[in-house]
Structures are given as structure tokens and as C-alpha cells.
Design goal:
The chain has 285 residues and is α+β, with helices and mostly antiparallel strands. It has 4 helices and 11 strands, in the order E-E-H-E-E-H-E-E-H-E-E-E-E-E-H.
Length: 285
């Protein structure tokens, strides 16, 4: 799979060149499914987490507590998925923080939103967040990121600590997007039109709260038509969260994303409880 010079292109999908990948999932809180129309949350700011940011590693008491301890940098790294956690031929890569998908870059056509111009702002924020790995906003605590390749598809996972109020608001905002951004048009830097569709998807019933989307972008890549499909799932565990995005020009990665969410959430809970994740997954579907 070829690499492009800066600005980096997240080739989360096909070696064909527009770069391609990322996202799927659902809309439910800790008590089960929730319709995106039932929640209206103020959008949190979109900013790309700095995967390389160094945060001092704190110590943790081994004594049990009623609630999980705060996430440390060492925890975030230990909670990341490994190849052993994923079925299939996923291979871990070292440059996942440089992945970008050029099909996600574009200006949303405000004319698509005749009754609520503010919806265009939300949809623009979604595209920007997918491009910048900022779906849950800027972490207030440690953050770690890893990525995997399988053929022409890619899988990205981020584990990070957040402000609880901001995290809840951001997840509620994600649940509104299938209604707010159902289908719209974005114009790329070269003037090409891209049709974007956003739907809700189910997320495994893990963690304290969860949200998920499937995003498809139809446009041109290397002079030919292309459709980027992104499956995205986010899961909150106390004040930390796991975000998994998978897909590419060959389609989404629903099964792999769901498996990654289960394993990633289990690993996160383990480290927050003061334990060490098993080198082998505890459950496999």
C-alpha cells in the first residue's frame, strides 16, 4: 500500500490511492439502545488528539476501590489492542497516527439543509473529526493509538481519558448525527462533489455508554469513482473511552470493529481496575 507525502492521506482502505478508512456502530447508552432523535447535545469542539503527547505515568494502589482509577499513559498503552485480540489477518503497523483519508476533506454544501442551517455545521464537524481522529473531542487525559492493516482495509483504535461532562456531551452529539446529517453533499478542494450518508449502527453492549455510526462517502479517487465506507464505534468506561474505526474503499469492517470494541473495552476495564490485560483474548466470537 503506497504512502503519500504531507498532507498525509489515511489510506484506510485501498492501495489505490485516495487513502481510505475508518468507522461503524450504534446509538445506545448504558441501559440499551437509544434513538438519535431522543438526544440533543451541544457539540463539543473538534480537535485531533495528539497521539504522541507524553503524559507522566502515575502510580496506582493495588487495593480495590469502588470506582476505576484515573487512566495513566501506561494504562492507555497497555489497553491498546494487539494482533492476538483480532481474528483474521490483521497486522499491526507503526504509523497509524499518520493515516489520513483524502475523501473526508471537503466543504459541506449548506444548501442541502433548507430548514436548519446549523445542521451543516454539525456535518462539517463530523467530516473534520473523522479526518483528524477527533470524534470524541480533545482528550483531557492520556491518549494512545494503534492501527492494523488487512489487505486494503485498516482498523484504528484509540484509548484516551476525557472530562466526563464533555465526553457524555460528545457521545450524545454523535447519536444525533444520523438524523442531522442523514445525507448531504461536500465539495472537495478540486471541486469534485461527494455524497455523504450517515446511519446509526449497533454497538456491542459493553462499557457504561456507547455510540456508533456508519459513514459512506461517494466520490472520486485517482480519477475514478470510489466509495469509502467507515464503521465507527465509541464506548465509555467511567471517564475513559475506546474509539474504533474500520473500513476502506472495499467496504466496512463491521465484524472486526465489533470484535475490537469488545476486546478493547475488556482491556480498558482491566487496566483501570489495576490489572494487566491477558496476552490472549478472553472471548472470541
Amino acid at each position: 500500500m503506497s504512502r503519500r507525502p504531507y498532507p498525509p492521506v489515511r489510506l484506510l482502505a485501498s492501495a489505490l490511492a485516495a487513502g481510505a478508512l475508518l468507522t461503524t456502530a450504534a446509538c445506545s447508552d448504558g441501559e440499551g439502545s437509544q434513538s438519535s432523535s431522543d438526544t440533543t447535545a451541544e457539540q463539543a469542539g473538534v480537535a485531533r488528539p495528539d497521539a504522541a503527547k507524553q503524559t507522566p505515568t502515575g502510580s496506582r494502589s493495588a487495593s480495590p476501590s469502588a470506582s476505576p482509577a484515573a487512566l495513566t499513559e501506561a494504562d492507555a498503552k497497555a489497553a491498546l489492542l494487539t494482533e492476538a485480540d483480532l481474528e483474521g489477518d490483521w497486522n499491526q503497523v507503526q504509523d497509524a497516527d499518520k493515516w489520513r483519508d483524502r475523501l473526508l476533506v471537503g466543504e459541506v454544501d449548506v444548501a442541502d439543509f433548507l430548514t436548519a442551517k446549523s445542521n451543516a455545521t454539525d456535518c462539517q464537524a463530523l467530516l473534520d473529526a473523522l479526518y483528524d481522529d477527533g470524534l470524541l473531542g480533545d482528550p483531557s487525559g492520556p491518549s494512545a493509538l494503534t492501527g492494523f492493516e488487512q489487505g486494503d482495509s485498516r482498523l484504528l483504535e484509540q484509548v484516551a481519558g476525557y472530562d466526563r461532562a464533555g465526553l457524555d456531551a460528545r457521545m450524545k452529539w454523535l447519536r444525533t448525527l444520523p438524523d442531522t446529517c442523514d445525507e448531504f453533499t461536500a465539495t472537495g478542494s478540486g471541486g469534485g462533489k461527494r455524497t455523504v450518508q450517515v446511519t446509526e449502527a449497533s454497538v456491542p453492549d459493553v462499557g457504561d455508554a456507547r455510540a456508533g455510526l456508519r459513514v459512506s462517502v461517494q466520490g472520486d479517487a485517482d480519477g475514478g469513482p470510489a466509495t469509502l465506507t467507515l464503521d465507527v464505534a465509541t464506548v465509555r468506561v467511567d471517564t475513559s473511552a475506546v474509539t474504533v474505526m474500520g473500513g476502506g474503499l472495499d467496504g466496512g469492517q463491521t465484524d472486526s470493529v465489533e470484535q475490537a470494541v469488545r476486546q478493547g473495552t475488556d482491556r480498558l476495564r482491566t487496566v483501570l481496575d489495576g490489572g494487566t490485560p491477558s496476552p490472549q483474548p478472553t472471548t472470541m466470537d
